[in-house]
Amino acid sequence: MRKVYPDARAALAGLLRDGMTIMSGGFGLCGIPALLIEAIRESGVKDLTVVSNNAGIDGAGLGLLLETRQIRKMVSSYVGENAEFARQYLAGELEIEFNPQGTLAERIRAGGAGIPAFFTRTGVGTAVAEGKETREFDGETYVMERGLFADLAIVHAYMGDTEGNLRYRKTARNFNPIMATAAKVTVAQVEHLVRPGEMDPDCIHTPGVFVKRIIQCPPGYEKRIEQRTVRKREPAAAAGEEI
């Protein structure tokens, strides 16, 4: 099967429709499939339910889809860096399903593993548990959470081969691996595209069986930084002073 496509628009052709559910990898702006998000924006598809740890920031990542009002509902954990997200939510223009971060990750992992639901203590006695089934195990109360499975998952990887095997790098190995397993179709953008056999099998994080389409990021692809943090510079030692 030919999995490599020339660009994001081509890779998403025939997959997008109004009202669909999309999983979008990344944490903040780290490991987000920015090219694929931009192509979704250009398509004009609307009324989307988007599953993502967060909604990017104003003017970047999923924030682009919020600006164009293409997202109807977000299933998220942390959304504190996006002013437009907050504005739409407080105005009643955006539906939100908040999840504790670990619960969100497990809901996605469960969906990819074919597990329809699981029980957790996280959220018991809070608004998170409202309207959900609870059950006692070993004297403790647990709340039932449903697994998540999407129509489409878009992910970003450091390296991939033409068969769809993916490797993520450092912090970008966040929600991307589990989302790649939890959708009918997974489309990946990779920084480095290699031939089959050029990736160390021990370093493959997502097997190619989960990935249906793949694109390579162009030269000079910009990876945005959400918040740049650096250490304070230490004062220079005086001549003859021990360091």
TrEMBL record:
Keywords on record: Transferase
MF (Gene Ontology): CoA-transferase activity
Alphabetical list of SMART domains matching this protein: CoA_trans
Pfam families cross-referenced by the UniProt entry: CoA_trans
Key word Secreted present: no
Name assigned to this protein: Succinyl-CoA--3-ketoacid-CoA transferase
Organism from which the protein derives: Caldovatus sediminis
Taxonomic lineage: Bacteria, Pseudomonadati, Pseudomonadota, Alphaproteobacteria, Acetobacterales
